[in-house]
Amino acid sequence: MPEILRPTNPVPGYDTTGTRNQPINPQDPNTNIQNVVDPNRVTRPDQRSEQQQAGDASVSHRMRYESNFLTFLQRLANAPDTASAFLRLLQGQGLQVSSGISPGLAAELQGFLELLQMDESHLAQFLQGQIQSGLRFGGALFQALRNAYNNSGSEMFRTEILQFLRQYSDYSSTDHLETRMLRTLQDMTRSLPSHWSNQLTNIIAQMQNGVEAGDRAGNLDLLRNQVFPLISDYVRRTHDHGMARSLLSLLTLDMVRYENGSEQELIQAFRHLGNYQIFKGDLSRLSDQDVLRLLTDTEFAKAARSDSFAEKFMEMAQRSLRGEGGSAAQEIFRNLMASILINESVYMPLQHLLLPFQWDGRAVFSEMWVDPDSQRSGGREEPAPRLLIKMDIEGLGAFDLLVDQSGGRTSLQVSCPRQVAAFSGDISRDLGDILQRNGLTPGDVRVSAMRTPMNISDAFPNLFQEVKNGVDVKV
User: Fold this and answer.
1) Positive or negative CA dihedral for 271, 277, 283, 285?
2) CA-based Rg of the chain, rounded to a whole angstrom?
3) CB 95 within 8 A of CB 89
4) Distance CA 290, CA 376 (A)
5) Cβ neighbours of 198 (radius 10 Å)
6) For 83-133, how does the pLDDT look when each residue is reduced to its tens digit (9 = 90+)?
7) Which of 54, 134, 349, 410 could form a disulfide with 440, with the two C-beta atoms 3.0–4.6 Å apart?
8) Contact 164, 270 (CB under 8 A)
């Protein structure tokens, strides 16, 4: 039978099964192959090629067409128009009760829109909260770990730092993991016959009590000794390899993270790092509760707890995607969630922020991509933080703002609608004054009419360099 667990793209030189399994190279002069398909000439019905352009910095190296990375690039290129979808949401187009949206969701949407009514002080607070809630590893503690990781020549030490960060990430995701596991179990009950679903419903009730009591060990015991044996017995007896078994696989991944994020394991890993003298001062005198408070009382945790925007947005998305909002709301939230998931891909090493708001009666949607660790290309490398801001303003149009800070100077490249570009000189002076008022030294400040929207790979030309040098296969 075929070896189904092998990668679809064997690494040359590492295949030990003999030459008969080596991939065929159409360029080999000793290989006689007729009618080899040229992927550059394969087009879609709309005449768009799925092949990425050779001049694209993100795919300038040789690509495997079935790779995960190429799939990500294609989805990125074909991502829904997030700005138009969010502007429709802010303007309430097609989201009235008469269009199919339920009265409860309509009231919730109205409260969400009122939350996004901004003035100068509220917008600054909203922006700061979004930045902090997206920086899980921000602050002096994680900066010390980052410096130790970058300066250490010990691979074992670097591995221990990464292991601690994984445990911290899993611990700080406890609420999210518990909610998702309960939702997965509820989905299981709908895919099982009544005899099995009734047993699972009783287990879910016990686990909900454990979640409210903070009993991680008890919840893990329920999952290991009751849920898994129950579903395994169901599959063995019925030979049903469908939804229930697939959901059990998802549950397994969340359970592993849930177990890895226990308080005891996190504290032990942190104390072990203290032996390397990473941190200033002696942390060995801290009690376990003090260590836990140090790891949980962070700006990220505070911002995440107070992020009402994300909480209300996700509640509306869940209800709309279940069909409560009618077809218009369902389409809007499907496009928004697709865009968010693409920008949170493992191949996107940038911080991504959504900033929708209403200002003086105008709907405004803004997205921001930040790379705090970017390097200047060519010559001596130096830190050069960059960020790309895309903004769509109702009644004006789309704006692109590229901010590049290097050599102690801040440069701005602004692309704007033509009617705004007519005042480019005044805008450049005003932007320079804004930089100076905020303690920054203006560099090159350019304002021009937008010809085409700026791509992320144009703003961050070295974005995919690390992926190019890594292993990229699909199993």
Assistant:
1) positive
2) 26
3) yes
4) 41
5) 11
6) 888 888 777 655 555 555 666 777 777 788 888 888 888 888 888 888 777
7) 410
8) yes
One-character DSSP codes across 62-124: ---TT-HHHHHHHHHHT---HHHHHHHHHHTTT-SGGGT--HHHHHHHHHHHHHTB--HHHHH
Residue 416, classed as helix, strand or coil, is strand
Q: What is the pLDDT of residues 406-419, one digit of tens each?
A: 878 899 999 999 99
- pTM metric for this prediction: 0.65
Residues ≥6 apart with Cβ < 8 Å to 163: 269
152: its two tokens: 């250490």
CA angle 225, 226, 230 (to 5 degrees): 120
E-assigned strands of 260-361? Answer: 351-359
Distance in angstroms (rounded) separating the CA atoms of residues 172 and 305: 11
- According to DSSP H, which parts of 152-297 are helical? 155-172, 174-189, 194-213, 216-222, 228-238, 243-260, 263-274, 288-296
One DSSP character per residue, 196-234 reads HHHHHHHHHHHHHHHHHHT-HHHHHHHIIIIIHHHHHHH
Which one, of 360, 354, 291, lies nearest residue 119 by Cα? 360
Residue in the structure block whose two tokens are 């060995």: 284
